[in-house]
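dumping this here so i dont lose it
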């Protein structure tokens, strides 16, 4: 991770990031004063989430760590009000003191990996100097590492105050209608004598259809009233009436009418056909309700849905969503733009057809696993571009859950990572070439030592020991250098004690100078590299300043498994070396490298103690970080 969330050269940024004022505010903020630490130490998952958040027009806020430190985008800054600058980097409970307990509880639920949301949540917030009622739709999604560690949570904020107030007004209107049918302009009543074609209606009904109230009170033909119906809606109304007459049943239909003031209004007509003594349709009484306000609310909701789609279509990623059973029913414009597929052609299970044939089965199996377990979906696969080329893509999805934990939808993204994937392959080739050259240097050194041994036979014992140490350094190099899944050392699966013994063998450690006490545990290739970096750095420092700097010092590694916390504890204890003083200068690169290996990569902790007789390093690492095959005893209990 770099020292900034995204590149500082604004000419290289996408337009939506180059114009984001929150991007600069986040980068300028002194994060070292918070529990999150400097930006450069943040996990890549946090950085990726921040970049995604800044690229969105939807109000979003990221809550980092157990305190829920606030990072948010431009849209949320507008929502927060004039004091938004004072909110960056502070705990959620302090951002809005009036709802501190609410925010504190949400941060706690996120820390437990819970995905949840609130629909129509009413809160009183002070955004401009006074408390005001707001209604919000809130979605909380935990942000986790692959190891399962929860780093924080992403909150999507949708203010629906206007819609709720409109709905409340509509409810009040309906309540008024229920108390007085004669409340002017709200409800009209009618009774149609079908055989005589005479409609007798009250004033409200006549006013809604533009008919003279006096004529309506005496009775007028149905055609006088349907003349006030919008021409486009007349066939629908006539069909509903004909069907009710034929079946001697109810009629319920919505349509537009033009009242006596020339204003178009939406109405709901509800009635029932009653037969005469001959069993044929005779009367059709009913009521007509003015639903103009409700229709306005519905249109506002439709507009809100359209705005959501517009937001999704402007995002740089391909966005999609599915039903709880995994049926794909939505893709944004970026998906169709990337794939070149006709709209709707990849709904359902057809999405799998645009994957590379070699990736289809793997992607399908991973998706079915996530649907069955509710686990987050993350996979890299090759997706067919509209050009016909298959490009590497990162697919991710998270389930959105009801309050009871039931999955209501899946939302996912596909991100084109083709260039970065190719660059990673190129970096791996360079790393392998560099490693090869370093090994050649070890080989040359061994040859030079052997040549000197032949010239000076009396030094044969020293030469032999020196060759062994050079060979041990070569083996240690295989562990310490970064590896991909392709370049990992074959047969690296071993135990913790064996790995440490192998790494320290170049320093001439025997059973008297390297002492193991306690439980040994297996480790696999995934854990080998960060562990090797840790112990190689400890050994190097011991050789320079500590227990291996003379011929009398020794190192003891005490190890134990804590079954309750499922953690492996190791105590590196140096003794017999030079007197050690606690450093007064800032941590060097080696110390930062150890912290990165243990804290960031393995989710563990390092606690150094500088005792007079030598360095002591307390190391704690979760058991699940040491091997993929670790099975928790709690899972089988």
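and the seq i came up w/
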């Amino acid at each position: 991770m770099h020292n900034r969330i995204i590149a500082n050269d604004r000419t290289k940024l996408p337009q939506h990031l180059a114009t984001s004022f929150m991007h600069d505010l986040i980068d300028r903020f002194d994060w070292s004063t918070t529990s999150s630490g400097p930006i450069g130490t943040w996990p890549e998952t946090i950085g990726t989430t921040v970049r995604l958040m800044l690229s969105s027009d939807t109000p979003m806020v990221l809550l980092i760590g157990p305190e829920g430190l606030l990072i948010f985008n431009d849209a949320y800054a507008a929502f927060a009000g004039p004091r938004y600058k004072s909110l960056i980097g502070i705990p959620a409970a302090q951002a809005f003191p009036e709802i501190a307990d609410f925010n504190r509880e949400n941060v706690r639920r996120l820390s437990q990996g819970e995905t949840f949301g609130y629909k129509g949540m009413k809160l009183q917030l002070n955004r401009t100097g006074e408390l005001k009622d707001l209604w919000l739709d809130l979605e909380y999604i935990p942000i986790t590492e692959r190891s399962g560690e929860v780093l924080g949570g992403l909150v999507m904020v949708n203010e629906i105050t206007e819609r709720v107030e409109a709905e409340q007004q509509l409810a009040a209107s309906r309540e008024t209608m229920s108390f007085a049918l004669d409340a002017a302009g709200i409800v009209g009543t009618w009774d149609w004598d079908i055989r005589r074609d005479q409609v007798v209606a009250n004033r409200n009904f006549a006013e809604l259809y533009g008919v003279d109230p006096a004529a309506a009170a005496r009775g007028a033909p149905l055609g006088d009233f349907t003349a006030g119906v919008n021409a486009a809606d007349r066939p629908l109304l006539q069909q509903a009436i004909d069907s009710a007459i034929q079946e001697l049943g109810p009629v319920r239909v919505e349509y537009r009418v033009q009242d006596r003031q020339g204003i178009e209004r939406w109405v709901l007509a509800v009635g029932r056909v009653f037969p005469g003594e001959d069993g044929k349709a005779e009367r059709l009484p009913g009521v007509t309700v003015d639903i103009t306000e409700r229709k306005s609310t519905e249109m506002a909701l439709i507009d809100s849905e359209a705005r959501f789609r517009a937001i999704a279509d402007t995002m740089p990623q391909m966005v999609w969503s599915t039903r709880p059973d995994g049926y794909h029913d939505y893709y944004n414009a970026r998906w169709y733009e990337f794939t070149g597929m006709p709209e709707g052609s990849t709904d359902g299970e057809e999405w799998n057809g645009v994957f590379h044939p070699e990736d289809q089965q793997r992607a399908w199996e991973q998706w079915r696993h996530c649907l069955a377990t509710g686990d987050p979906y993350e996979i890299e696969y090759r997706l067919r571009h509209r050009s016909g080329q298959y490009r590497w893509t990162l697919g991710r999805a998270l389930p959105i859950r009801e309050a009871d934990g039931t999955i209501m939808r899946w939302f996912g993204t596909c991100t084109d990572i083709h260039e970065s994937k190719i660059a990673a392959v190129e970096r791996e080739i360079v790393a392998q070439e560099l490693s090869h050259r370093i090994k050649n240097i070890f080989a040359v050194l061994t040859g030079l030592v052997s040549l000197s041994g032949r010239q000076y036979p009396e030094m044969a014992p020293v030469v032999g020991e020196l060759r062994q140490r050079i060979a041990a350094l070569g083996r240690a190099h295989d562990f310490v250098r970064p590896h991909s899944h392709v370049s990992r050392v074959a047969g690296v699966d071993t135990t913790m004690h064996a790995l440490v013994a192998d790494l320290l063998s170049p320093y001439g450690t025997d059973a008297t100078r390297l002492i193991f006490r306690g439980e040994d545990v297996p480790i696999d290739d995934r854990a080998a590299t960060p562990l090797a970096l840790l112990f190689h750095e400890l050994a190097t420092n011991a050789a320079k300043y500590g227990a291996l700097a003379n011929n009398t010092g020794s190192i003891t590694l005490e190890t134990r498994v804590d079954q309750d916390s499922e953690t492996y504890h190791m105590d590196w204890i140096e003794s017999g070396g030079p007197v050690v003083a606690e450093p007064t200068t800032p941590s060097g690169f080696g110390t930062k490298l150890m912290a990165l290996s243990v804290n960031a990569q393995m989710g563990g902790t390092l606690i150094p103690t500088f005792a007079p007789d030598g360095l002591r390093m307390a190391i704690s690492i979760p058991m699940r970080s040491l091997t993929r095959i670790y099975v928790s005893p709690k899972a089988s209990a």
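The longest strand covers residues 131-144.
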